[in-house]
Amino acid sequence: xxxxxxxxxxxxxxxxxxxxxxxxxxxxxxxxxxxxxxxxxxxxxxxxxxxxxxxxxxxxxxxxxxxxxxxxxxxxxxxxxxxxxxxxxxxxxxxxxxxxxxxxxxxxxxxxxxxxxxxxxxxxxxxxxxxxxxxxxxxxxxxxxxxxxxxx
Length: 152
Known about the structure:
Blueprint: E1 10-11, E2 14-15, E3 25-28, E4 33-35, E5 45-50, H1 55-70, E6 76-82, H2 88-97, E7 103-107, H3 111-115, E8 123-127, E9 133-138, H4 144-151
Parallel strand pairs: 5-6, 6-7
Antiparallel strand pairs: 1-2, 3-4, 3-7, 5-8, 8-9
């Protein structure tokens, strides 16, 4: 039996700016379950929904890595790997190889992708300290520094 569920408010780019960031169960790369809501409301958060095979994500990577260093201790960065043609092990090897120092999670069931109405990989959501979405963007050419500033 299918149960209808209300979807969060969204625009063509996913969730609408101004809405409260939802939680969703994902897992760490070593298999522990974690809810995205555990990152929300404790300070600004940048969520990136990405994949190893995503060329736009690869284009965003240097910008994300620079911001992770620049805003260390001020902004939490969370990379949410989608499960399409991926595995936690492959994602872990990639994150290690490229020196990721921020949180990397795996969306095993697609719960986070659904909760955030992710239109495609390279989708970035910036959430302010109060848990409100202040930016959403898609593609390899995003002005992430300005987006992070909106979350501070």
